[in-house]
């Protein structure tokens, strides 16, 4: 406490004003802590009661009243709406990022923004508690520490979601060739496209669970009454892969113009194999250029040390005898 008060006194230059600011900050922190605990206690109720409130909120009561589901859910929604502005959640970049990362819940965007905000506040609080243990820290250094803690708390959830998105897209991309081959076999054997997708999802449930889940979701949408073209477009939007997007476009055109789906899948499978071969050749061609820097910084110094080192030692000995 004395350390924080001395920092405020050095920054303001007036002891009375520093004391007033310090007391105001302590009071505001206590009020915010009490309000936060109260909201959490109100929001974290029995799951059955919370579910009943959610169901009741979807209906208009006798007197025309409309009750909110829970304070915690409202708080998350308000935080998400505050950061989203007037954007539509279904078309926002945050929603697209979370869907690509595998978070398809309706409240995923609100939880994402709330997690970033809460983690930032927690790290800032930890930094404030750690300031008295840092000896000789100036006001500028303390401010930079607090800003750094806030930045880390704000960026870490975004980095985690982005890494999860990349990992999920790698898994989907790795399982797509197997799914495409199985889909070609199923369609050519006489199965319709929805039944082929269902069979492929069953076969890939063990080896490629992420892709099998997406294909099962496509089949569920088709059973619910959504057209095959629209369900496949939803698949392309959820995955974000160019390969699946190209396949969806070809299948949509095939369904629209009445051409053979089996021929379309076979042609796309051949083109996809060619693209994979070209991508592998491109990576192999880049290998020589990428090896230049490891050779320069790792192998060549050792080579010169082994080859020229004895010569340099002999020259030094020869000049030392003169």
Overview of the molecule:
- The protein has helices spanning 2-12, 15-43, 47-57, 71-84, 93-101, 108-130, 139-188, 193-203, 209-223, 228-239, 242-257, 261-290, 292-321.
- Helix 5 crosses helix 7 (139-188) and helix 9 (209-223) runs antiparallel to helix 10.
- The chain is built from 13 helices and no strands.
- InterPro entries: T2SS_GspF_dom.
Task: Give the topology.
Elements: H1 2-12, H2 15-43, H3 47-57, H4 71-84, H5 93-101, H6 108-130, H7 139-188, H8 193-203, H9 209-223, H10 228-239, H11 242-257, H12 261-290, H13 292-321
The biggest beta sheet reads: none
Radius of gyration: 31 Å
Shape designation: flat
Helix content: over 70%
Mean pLDDT: 77
The H-and-E topology, N to C, reads as HHHHHHHHHHHHH
Please report the total strand number as a whole number: 0
Class inferred from helices and paired strands: mainly alpha
Low-confidence stretches: 57-70
Gap from first CA to last CA: 72 Å
Please give the count of helices. 13
Strand content: under 5%
